[in-house]
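[step 3/7] fold_predict: job queued, chain A
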Amino acid sequence: MKRTRSESMAENRRKLIAAARKAFAEKGYADASMDVLTAEVGLTRGALYHNFGDKRGLFAAVVDEIDTEMAERAKARGAAAGAGWDALLAEGAAYIEMALDPEVQRIVLLDGPAVLGDPSLWPSQNSCLQVTREAIQGLMGEGVLKPVDAEAAARLISGAALNAAMWIAASAEPERVLPKAQEAFRVLVEGLLAKAPA
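[step 4/7] structure written:
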């Protein structure tokens, strides 16, 4: 059965993102060759330009895909920890821990900000921010958290997790830095609690 044009384009897009993920993880953004990448998947540079505009556009699509997967993994870890406060804390700790993943380190935490700019402006980070804001509003409504601007609290919590992850990714000893970062994150976020933890 012959594929439609839109099915072929979607397949080409998937192929390019998968190949780019591998190339960006192994070589980094600067050293990843688009000619090699497109040849490996049997496509032309024209297919890359048509789908993504340029190398930066392809990189943004890869970052978005990985960042979205990270958010899903963090959410699953939060759900496994329970609900409310425990979930919020577990999601932040999980996000920080993902900085040990070489693909996340290289693409999202090191090259991502250098190529795409401020992570708080990335679409994937923005959706995470809104989920965090809603969780904070719910916890404030239950009296678990101090009354504070939910947007500000969400941005500070997300920023703390992101900066902790970036610190780990840039560290020569990420496994040694991880527990320090997670502990400091927990202590900072606990400052929002209406009552001190037992």
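[step 5/7] annotate
The CA atoms of residues 38 and 44 lie 6 Å apart.
The two ends are 63 Å apart (CA to CA).
exit 0
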